[in-house]
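Incident log, support desk, overnight shift.

02:14 A customer reports that sequence design results differ from what the structure should imply. Their input is reproduced verbatim below. On-call engineer (initials T.W.) acknowledged and began investigating.
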């Protein structure tokens, strides 16, 4: 039963690859029939679970309610989308965002729920580290605006270099991942090699120190909550 449930959950999630806008588009009739089949399997699994569970226990479990609501929303969206498609009215499948609910809320997904709840419980505790990181990013962006904004520098494409504060924040945020390194610093380096010290300091503080600290806080808190949940044995 677990294998069958996981198979149809994976099949349901995979429909996003074939539905418009799609990577490999398939006719709407094909994807809709597959989705209806998946929803029928989910409903059958839920019905089977209701028959082997006390009624008051079944209706008090929010996981079962979430699955029912997700099935109803998916069928409603599918019907509305099909009717609008008949009349050539452009629309989108908004119910795609509820499909992961099936992955989380079925009884077979206990380990996934544990991981999900650990992530949810970890997020508030890493807020302070994230705020410190954003403060550092905003301060470095302000320094970059003052250092380079008035020197009329240009990028290799001839665009103004570090003139707009929000664009600076975005460029330096990308630099934390080193995805735009060293391109983002070359106009300043070509103007004066001493400006490389600014970017070196930025990378040391934000990429090596803050990202390591952020990872350590996330890992420790996630591990702590996961141990607590395994100790309780519930979910």
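02:41 Re-run completed on a clean worker. Output:
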């Amino acid at each position: 039963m677990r294998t069958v449930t996981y198979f149809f959950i994976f099949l349901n999630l995979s429909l996003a690859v074939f539905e418009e806008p799609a990577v490999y588009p398939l006719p709407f009739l094909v994807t809709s029939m597959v989705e209806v089949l998946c929803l029928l399997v989910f409903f059958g699994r839920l019905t089977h679970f209701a028959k082997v569970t006390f009624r008051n226990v079944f209706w008090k479990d929010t996981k079962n309610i979430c699955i029912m609501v997700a099935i109803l929303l998916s069928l409603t969206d599918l019907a509305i989308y099909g009717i609008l498609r008949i009349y050539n009215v452009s629309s989108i499948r908004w119910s795609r965002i509820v499909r992961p609910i099936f992955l989380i809320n079925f009884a077979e997904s206990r380990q996934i729920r544990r991981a999900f709840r650990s992530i949810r419980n970890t997020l508030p505790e890493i807020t302070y580290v994230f705020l410190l990181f954003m403060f550092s990013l905003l301060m470095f962006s302000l320094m970059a605006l003052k250092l380079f904004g008035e020197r009329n520098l240009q990028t290799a494409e001839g665009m103004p270099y570090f003139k707009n504060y929000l664009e600076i924040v975005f460029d330096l945020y990308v630099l934390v991942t080193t995805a735009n390194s060293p391109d983002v610093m070359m106009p300043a380096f070509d103007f004066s090699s001493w400006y490389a010290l600014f970017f070196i300091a930025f990378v040391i503080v934000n990429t090596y120190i803050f990202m390591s600290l952020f990872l350590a806080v996330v890992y420790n808190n996630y591990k702590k909550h996961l141990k607590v949940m395994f100790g309780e044995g519930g979910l």
